[in-house]
Design a protein that fits this description.
Layout (H helix, E strand, L loop, with lengths): L20 H15 L1 H18 L15 E7 L6 H16 L4 E8 L19 E8 L2 H18 L4
Length: 161
Amino acid sequence: GYMILKQRKHAGTHHDVFDTGFYRRLRATVAWAVRHRIIVLVMTLVTFATSLWAFQFIPQNFFPQSSRPEILVDLWLPEGTSIKEVENQAKALEAKMMDDPDKRFIATYIGEGAPRFFLPLDQQLRNPNFAQLLVMAKDEPARERLIVKMRGILAKDFPSI
């Protein structure tokens, strides 16, 4: 690099390094902004207000609908509940869903969550009052029907969960 780059001559003080066209324009811009701070403040507020107004035109698909067929059901029982009671509740819910024609299979994890099979999955660490059911639906419409059924079953038969 020493042989390729043109060597600059710095005669005088260390301030001469900043005596280039770019730094002169930058210094002039900063000086103008300080002298006209009210104009700069108004321009900033107008830009901010315009951005808030423009948000209504941005589509709300930051988290798009999932096309995956599985449903994860987290069962949290009260703190101090025995792991045997958690297992009984999870098995009871699993039994209610077992004959549903929309499901392919159900996997139940007692005391911890399912292993990470999907990167955005929020893994649940070991916890004796927790169970997780992985319900695999046959397809997306079946998944939506299963969600509605599952919510009904949980509200009616498992109000404490």
